[in-house]
Design brief:
It comes from Leifsonia shinshuensis. By secondary structure, the protein is an alpha/beta fold. It is 31% helix and 27% strand. The protein is built from eight helices and twelve strands. The protein has a six-stranded mixed sheet, sandwiched between helices. A four-stranded antiparallel sheet has the order 2-1-4-5, covered by helices on one side. The protein is globular, with a radius of gyration of 19 Å. The chain starts with 5 loop residues before the first strand and ends in a 6-residue tail after the last strand. It binds adenosine-5'-triphosphate. Adenosine-5'-triphosphate binds next to helix 1.
């Protein structure tokens, strides 16, 4: 689509009387891949929920894929918004066949089911499974997969409908080193493909930022402390300020690591 995929203008979200997001301005363009970082409770998941049009701003304006949230019927947009989170994954029946977990994402799009669609959807689901290194697991049940495999299935499901924006809430959480690296590598390949949609990923760890991610947004207490090109925004200083810890950030060949600096005694 032409134009921005997401535009937030002076967005605030109040929950239980508490400001969770305050005065957020943010624009996401189709070729951008964003990482959102910030301390626990900073409002990261809430940002994704606004971006997914799952919640309305308490004030300000959110425009998702050209439609203003709260002023338009967004049901037609749903298939164009890919979303993967642990909360969503909990709703997937453990006994469901992996192929069906991915393929059912398409039912919501077509809203119908006949042999022609079955064929097209199954072929697409198998192709998506293969892209996420899951083809050998297509006939297994979701509950029998490892955490890493389940995470990849969630992402495969969220890209099945060929979305225009992909929103990922902590996709590498709870993965061991091998699982994390496999996922980060696959996400890196996906993010680097110009045909891929805009991507927004929330994470707690800079180590989980895949190659190809080109924008970063830092949140603290519901406010954006920095947003823009990743090389400008992700610095030792900005992370230290946002997390309230004296942090040293290192970048090696496009991947990041962060650690707290040792306190020095005078
Ligand atoms: N449904 C809700 N009702 C009341 N408060 C909420 C609700 N959802 C979130 N909050 C509060 O809003 C704040 C931001 O929550 P959010 O989940 O967006 O933060 P986060 O940055 O994703 O946190 P974490 O890193 O811990 O996942 C928190 O203080 C949280 O307790």
């Amino acid at each position: 689509m032409a134009g921005s995929v997401l535009r937030l203008h002076d967005v605030s979200v109040v929950r239980d009387g508490n400001p969770v997001l305050q005065g957020v301005d943010w624009t996401v363009e189709p070729d951008e891949r964003w990482v959102i970082l910030g301390p626990n409770g900073a409002g990261k998941t809430t940002m994704l929920q606004v971006a997914a049009a799952a919640i309305h701003p308490s004030s300000g304006e959110a425009v998702v894929l050209g439609e203003t949230v709260g002023h338009s019927d967004l049901s037609e947009l749903r298939p164009l918004l890919g979303f993967a989170s642990t909360a969503l994954a909990r709703r997937i029946p453990r006994t469901e066949r992996v192929l069906d977990v991915v393929m059912t994402a398409a039912y919501a799009v077509t809203g119908r089911w006949n042999e022609l669609y079955e064929d097209i959807d199954e072929r697409r689901a198998r192709r998506v499974l293969s892209e996420w290194h899951l083809d050998h697991l297509a006939e297994r049940t979701f509950g029998s997969l490892s955490d890493g495999e389940q995470k990849r299935v969630q992402i495969a499901r969220s890209v099945m409908t060929d979305p225009e924006i992909l929103l990922l809430d902590e996709p590498a959480a709870s993965l061991d080193l091998g699982g994390r690296e496999e996922l980060v590598q696959l996400l890196g390949g996906y993010a680097s493909d110009p045909k891929s949609p805009a991507i927004v990923m929330v994470t707690h760890h800079v180590e989980e930022i895949p190659l190809g991610f080109n924008r970063a947004l830092l949140l603290k207490d519901g406010r954006v402390t920095a947003a823009g090109p990743i090389a400008e925004v992700l610095t030792s200083e900005s992370l230290s300020e946002t997390f309230g810890v004296d942090v040293e950030l290192t970048e090696t060949e496009g991947r990041f690591t962060a650690r707290a600096r040792q306190a020095t005694s005078d």
